[in-house]
């Protein structure tokens, strides 16, 4: 499959519903896990090279949003795709439950403080979308407020795009069966207890509600300047392969270049 088709292949479609079966799809896989991992390494190196140029150019800002159910692989994506990138100009922000101070402001206040500056690449591990997901699942906000927040998000992301931010949003789509397996693995392995929260089991009871609200939020906020991609994520290797492919394709399209050299520097001598 041509790399140029990856964004089109995984871009959310009108009316699309992420089925349980689709979470296990591997449209980009070669069928050889080791070979796919090697490809991810190669893609990550090229992403790193392009980010170095973007950092020097200071023209674009790159924002990557990772959303998904518990255990869907947000941390794994940060490590597997972006972990080997030159950290200069790269940051990752993990959004937790809002603090009292954050709650005293509008819901986007804490988000806006972390958007990338010129030349930077920022990864949101969870994001402002939590404020139209868990808040709606548990009826902490009304339906009317949820619709207002969709509108605020659309306006916010449009403003970011119009001021130079390139936005990529990824829904890491895992199946209920795969989440069950990963939660059981965390419970069984003491070395992974730090990753486990008993509340994850409570949230799992709302699985179908979350799936419905995820697709609602995605369709309400998908835009050409802030596209959503639905990433089959039951396979960790394929998840990384898909996201790395889309990020690289997007960065290549920017055609970054180093700033022009200063001819006056040719006259300088270092003693």
Automatic annotation (TrEMBL):
Keyword field: Kinase, Transferase
Pfam families to which the protein is assigned, alphabetical: PPK2
A molecular-function term among this protein's GO annotations: polyphosphate kinase activity
Ranges of biased composition (kind: Basic residues): 1-10
The keyword DNA damage is annotated on this UniProt entry: no
InterPro entries: P-loop_NTPase (IPR027417), Polyphosphate_phosphotransfera (IPR016898), PPK2-rel_1 (IPR022300), PPK2-related (IPR022488)
Domain of life where this protein originates: Bacteria
Protein name: Polyphosphate kinase-2-related domain-containing protein
Record organism: Oxalicibacterium solurbis
Organism classification: Bacteria, Pseudomonadati, Pseudomonadota, Betaproteobacteria, Burkholderiales
């Amino acid at each position: 499959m041509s790399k140029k088709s990856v964004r089109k292949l995984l871009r959310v479609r009108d009316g699309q519903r992420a089925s349980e079966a689709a979470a296990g799809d591997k449209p980009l896989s070669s069928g050889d896990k080791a070979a796919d991992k090697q490809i991810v390494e190669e893609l990550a190196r090229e992403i790193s090279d392009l980010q170095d140029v973007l950092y020097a150019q200071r023209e674009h800002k790159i924002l990557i949003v990772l959303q998904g159910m518990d255990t869907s692989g947000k941390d794994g994506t940060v490590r597997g795709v972006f972990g080997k990138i030159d950290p200069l100009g790269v940051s990752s922000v993990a959004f937790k439950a809002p603090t009292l101070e954050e709650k005293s402001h509008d819901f986007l206040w804490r988000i806006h403080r972390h958007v990338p500056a010129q030349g930077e690449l920022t990864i949101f591990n969870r994001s402002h979308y939590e404020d139209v997901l868990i808040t709606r699942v548990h009826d902490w906000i009304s339906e009317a407020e949820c619709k207002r927040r969709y509108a605020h998000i659309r306006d916010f992301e449009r403003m970011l795009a119009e001021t130079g931010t390139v936005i990529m949003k990824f829904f890491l789509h895992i199946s209920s069966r795969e989440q069950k397996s990963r939660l059981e693995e965390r419970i069984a392995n003491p070395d992974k207890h730090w990753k486990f929260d008993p509340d994850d089991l409570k949230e799992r009871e709302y699985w179908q509600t979350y799936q419905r609200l995820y697709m609602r939020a995605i369709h309400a906020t998908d835009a050409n300047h802030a596209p959503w991609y639905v990433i089959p994520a039951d396979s960790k290797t394929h998840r990384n392969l898909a996201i790395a492919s889309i990020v690289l394709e997007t960065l290549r399209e920017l055609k970054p270049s180093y700033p022009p050299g200063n001819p006056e520097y040719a006259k300088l001598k270092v003693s």
